[in-house]
Design brief:
single chain; mainly alpha; 2 domains; 9 helices
C-alpha cells in the first residue's frame, strides 16, 4: 500500500520480519519491556503509541461493567486482558513525552512518521448519505410505497383518516429532505427484525408517524397526537 504505514502492537511481530512500511507501537506500559532490547538499532521501527479510548474514569468503569456483562462474569472476576487500559485517556504532550524521556530515538522516529503523514478533511462537506436508492425521486416513491404497505396491514385500504395522516407526514418528510433518513431507519429495522431482535423507534422517527405504522404492532398511531411546527 503506497504511502501507508502499518503499526503493530509491541510483541505482536518480530522486528526482523517487518517490511519497510511496518512499525512497532510501544505503549508507555510496554517501556519496561525494552530494557533487554537494543533500542538504537530498532529506532527506525519503534514509535510512541498511546491509544485514547476513554474521556473519564466513569467511562472506564462503564467499559469494565459492559465487558463483564459480555463475558457473563462478576466484575471482580473480569480478567485484566479482557479490558482496555485505564490509562487510555488524553494526556498533555509534555506528560506523554516525559514517559519516553529515556528513549529519545523513539520520540524522534515518531515525529518523523508524523511529519510524513497528512490529514485532509473538508469540514464544510456534508458527509451524511444523501439518498438511499441513488435518486431522490426514487427515494420518495419507495418511502411512500412502504408507508402505504404498513398502513394497509394495520388499517386496510378504506381508512381515510389513516391515509390522510400518512400523506401529510410524507409531504413533510419530503419537504424537509428526510426521505433517505427514514429509508435508512427502515432498512436497519428490517435487518434487526430478520435477525429476531426486538425493535423500537425513538426520536424524530417516532414523531414522524409512518415508521410506527410500518413496524410497530404495539402502538395505535391514530390515537396519538403530535404537535409539530414546521417553518
Amino acid at each position: 500500500m503506497p504511502g501507508v504505514y502499518v503499526m503493530y502492537a509491541w510483541g505482536k511481530q518480530h522486528p526482523d520480519t517487518l517490511l519497510p512500511h511496518e512499525l512497532l507501537g510501544v505503549k508507555p506500559r510496554d517501556l519496561s519491556r525494552l530494557f533487554r532490547v537494543d533500542v538504537q538499532s530498532l529506532a527506525h521501527k519503534l514509535v510512541m503509541w498511546h491509544p485514547v479510548t476513554f474521556a473519564s474514569a466513569e467511562q472506564y468503569e462503564l467499559h469494565r461493567l459492559l465487558r463483564a456483562v459480555d463475558k457473563n462474569l462478576l466484575i471482580t472476576q473480569l480478567p485484566v486482558e479482557e479490558t482496555a487500559g485505564a490509562d487510555e485517556v488524553f494526556l498533555p504532550p509534555y506528560r506523554l513525552l516525559a514517559m519516553y524521556e529515556q528513549y529519545p530515538d523513539i520520540v524522534r522516529n515518531t515525529l518523523r512518521v508524523m511529519d510524513d503523514c497528512q490529514l485532509e478533511f473538508d469540514f464544510k462537506a456534508v458527509r451524511n448519505r444523501q439518498t438511499f436508492t441513488g435518486d431522490r425521486h426514487t427515494d420518495r416513491e419507495l418511502l411512500r410505497e412502504k408507508a402505504l404497505e404498513g398502513m394497509q396491514l394495520r388499517y386496510g385500504n378504506q381508512n381515510g383518516e389513516a391515509l390522510r395522516r400518512i400523506e401529510k407526514e410524507l409531504f413533510i418528510i419530503d419537504k424537509m429532505n428526510f426521505n433517505a433518513y427514514f429509508l435508512i431507519t427502515w432498512d436497519i429495522i428490517c435487518f434487526a427484525q430478520s435477525r429476531g431482535f426486538f425493535t423500537w423507534v425513538e426520536g424524530a422517527a417516532q414523531i414522524r408517524w409512518w415508521p410506527i405504522v410500518c413496524i410497530s404492532p404495539m402502538l395505535i398511531p391514530l390515537r396519538l397526537t403530535f404537535i409539530l411546527s414546521v417553518s
